[in-house]
Amino acid sequence: MSRLPAPAPLDVGNVMWLLVAMCFVVAPHVLRLPYWVGVFFGVVVGWRAWIAWAALRVPPRSLMYVVTAVAAVGTYMQYQRIGGREPGVTLLIVMASLKVLEMRTQREVVLAIYLGFFLVLTNFLFSQSIPLGLYMLVCVWVFIATLVGFNRIGSSPTISERLRPAGALLLQALPLMAAFFVLFPRVQGPLWALPQDARSGATGLSDTMTPGNIANLIKSDAVAFRVRFEGERPPFSRMYWRGPVMTEFDGQTWRMSGVGMMGRLHFARAANPVRYAITMEPNNKNWLFALDAPAATPPDSYPLVDLQLRSHRPVDQRLRYELTSYLDYRYDEGSGPQMLRYASRFDETRNPRTVALGRSWARELKDPHRIIERAITLYNREFTYTLEPPVLDKANPYDDFLFNTKRGFCEHYAGSFALLMRAAGVPARVVTGYQGGELNPFNGELIVRQADAHAWTEVWLADAGWTRVDPTAVVSPLRVEGGVNAALGPIGATSVMMAADRLGILANIHFGWQYLNSQWDQWIVGYNLEKQRQFFSDLGFRDVDWRTLAFWLMAAILLVGGAVTLGLLFRERQPRAEASLIAWNRFCSKLGAAGVVRAPHEGPLDFLARVQRAHPGLSAEAQEITRRYVEARYGAGATREELRELATRVREFRATTA
Amino acid sequence: MAGSLRQSISDWIFRAASPETPPVTLVQRRIFILPTKMGYVYGGTLLILLLSSINYALSLGFVLTFLLMSMAGVAMLHTWRNLAHLRLRPGRCDPVFAGDVAHFGVTVETPSLTRFAIALRPREGDPVYTDIVAREPAMIAIPAQTRTRGLLRCGRLEVFTRYPVGLFHAWSYIDFDLKVLVYPRPDPAAGAPPRSGGNDVEEGIPVAGDDEFNMLRPYRAGDAPKLIAWKALAREQGLLTKEFNATAAAELWLEWGEAPGADVEARLCALTHWVLQAEEFGQAYGLRIPGVRIAPDRGDAHCRACLEALALFEMPR
Description:
The structure holds 2 protein chains of 2 kinds.
Chain A: H1 12-32, H2 35-54, H3 61-79, H4 85-102, H5 106-126, H6 130-151, H7 159-183, E1 208-209, H8 213-217, E2 223-230, E3 240-246, E4 248-249, E5 254-255, E6 269-280, E7 287-288, E8 290-291, E9 301-303, E10 309-311, E11 319-330, H9 337-342, H10 352-365, H11 368-382, E12 384-385, H12 397-405, E13 407-408, H13 410-423, E14 428-435, E15 438-440, E16 445-449, E17 453-461, E18 465-469, H14 471-475, H15 477-488, H16 492-500, H17 505-525, H18 529-538, H19 546-572, H20 578-593, H21 604-614, H22 619-633, H23 640-652
Parallel strand pairs in A: 12-13
Antiparallel strand pairs in A: 1-5, 2-6, 2-16, 3-8, 3-14, 4-5, 6-11, 7-10, 9-10, 14-17, 15-16, 17-18
Helix pairs in contact in A: 1-2, 1-4, 1-5, 1-6, 2-4, 3-4, 4-5, 5-6, 6-7, 7-19, 10-13, 11-13, 12-13, 20-22, 20-23, 21-22, 22-23
Chain B: H1 2-13, E1 24-25, E2 32-35, H2 37-55, H3 59-83, E3 87-90, E4 96-97, E5 101-109, E6 115-121, E7 128-132, E8 138-145, E9 150-153, E10 157-161, E11 168-174, E12 179-183, H4 196-202, E13 213-218, H5 230-234, E14 240-244, E15 252-255, H6 264-281, E16 285-289, E17 292-297, H7 300-311
Parallel strand pairs in B: 4-12, 15-16
Antiparallel strand pairs in B: 1-3, 2-11, 3-5, 5-8, 6-7, 6-10, 9-12, 10-11, 13-14, 16-17
Helix pairs in contact in B: 2-3, 6-7
């Protein structure tokens, strides 16, 4: 009267695998999100593990609703919003962990695994580097292995019985994945509005400059943009990458101002053109960088009167543009009376000593050239270039800097210099951007990092137009010639190691890794509509449309599918019976050499009987070989392994030992 | 309603020439494959991953999406391969008593590769999963709850697999016309079988016309005096009893008419109990039910023959 058994509860081993996979994929997030997210996740996973281990019931759904509500409120209180990258990922982790906690059935487990795939994707919102990519591949592997375990109904698989089929699936999926990656038609731009912080790369220059904020940037190794020069590369000392220009000044902070747009760039004189292409990392800002000064504007962008390039939309994904710049130029636009008045304004009540000094120079020297010289001499004599300047007085920071501390970074010099010039009646403004860069000897590419951020000034001279003056170069010529490392000594671990590396091996590894990263960034991470077009035109196909892509995709699917099917069937194919015959004949000839010749009509069993009579010493082994041969040839057949075993036994068979 | 319509459509589409002669090899054209419900959910997941990747311009998101998509494609082939070329043979189908769980036996073997989580499912009931190793035919017993006596047919079996990742359901149908004989449920309330023969003898009735002398056997206490072979005793052959054919002195006839019970089934249950009892006592017994007469005998085969007769009483064969 036994009834049929009820469906079994979730297998403990399988649940543990899922929990491990979840931990794998959430681990990188724990470092990025508030600590309570990690604690919450850890507690929930531990709780679920205990439930599985002790075969307890999962908590009731009503409790789940409460915990979910608490977690949502917690997320809101943390961020004051629900949308956006960090809150979104936090919520997803909370949801996934609760899903894991409450799962009872196989179906819920599978849903949890699918949620895990989303968690993999969210990691890419923060970084798409090679190490993270590889790590996430491992995560996907473990998830698939978990899925394999759950589908091994009726038996519990070992670790390798989970990982091997999952690995085989992923390996065989790689070619098709590559084909889809290359061929799948790419669409430009977001489908729906992105939150401001959707992507990484938020570090970078800002639209204001206060003493201290560039110095913070200098500590970042993040890449700002990469440059590939066509033809000759200008010397480092002339690589001023122009970014936000700041004309407005309130006594402490320099700001970008609403200067007018321009239709076209116009130079009174232009020489020394340099052609290059810039690949910019996303910074979610509207400005583009160009070698001072850009001759034209890239597509979807426009110039401002102060020679700043602005793009129409924020740069929220990697952007590549080609440009020509003039290293020598004379630029007079934006020097109308109104503009110059604007570039001479300052708040007289703040930094009074600086203002007084500038005014005294104006009375004494009159000629702007001599005023500039005087200022440079001042800096040259008494000032020190340092990354860790003392904190300045809030109300009168430049007074404090010029007359007390005398230690500063580029922004101190640029800001104080511009103020001095204005006080002396010379129109001046601050230009921020980057200076120099690091040349990768492997591909000749110049990498400009946040650490190369710089600020300098431009003054307006009646006989030369807007002219660049870099007071930092005076105080620390090395900064401009050899980069920030040369000027300050090594910053950061990489630089310290590089400095210690006299043999150059580390440098080679460093640059090789740089090169790999650059290729990865350009061709994998930066593979967009444009790159796709470029890829196909490099291959000799112009104007590839989606139909061609679809055709090739179909071809790839058929090719890969066919190859995999053939591979599977090949492994399935019955081993050939002849293999056993070959082994048998070899066995007979060995015995023939030892004096027992098999008659043509003699069957294997008869022959065996005769061999056993003639050489009793060989009896056991001969019997085993004959048994295997008869089984393979006349019986149920043999697998590959069994045939191999038969061949080995025959090979090792020694008839002469009789 | 919709379910039964779907069932009949599916029956029509996947109709097979049944029953089939074993062994059946699951060749390519016998195998069907479709995504599972979770496979469709997986497809939806991929779509969301793709849209997110486009929206956030995440190249590695594309890589992830396409990797998972291609993995599903490869998994489809693996699922199909996991089922293809399996060889199936009918296995043991032992009789059971009504109310017990019957088991339909099927033997499955793989030519070379090990197969995982191969399932066999009867039309109604849960699937039975097993792994199949090369050269070791797996005997799979598909349980089925029995209710009434008679011949329980297994009907068409679905052999399917979802291994390795459960995104696809590959299946095939086989019909070996597997049958389990279901005996009536023995009714212990029927008590011990009546010793009908004993009564007859006491009344001194050699059944009319059947008083043909058969043989002599040793005397047992209770034998009627007039059956004692006095002549043999005189010849000093000891005390013997004459045995006549029709009287069947120690033979037990299990009679339809004597079985207690309100209806046919109740009588069959009582008779089943008697057969088992008689067999257990090691007594020769015969069975007489309308349309069937099984001569007295003993032993396993005889017992099974009697039970079969009871199981199939008034049943279309």
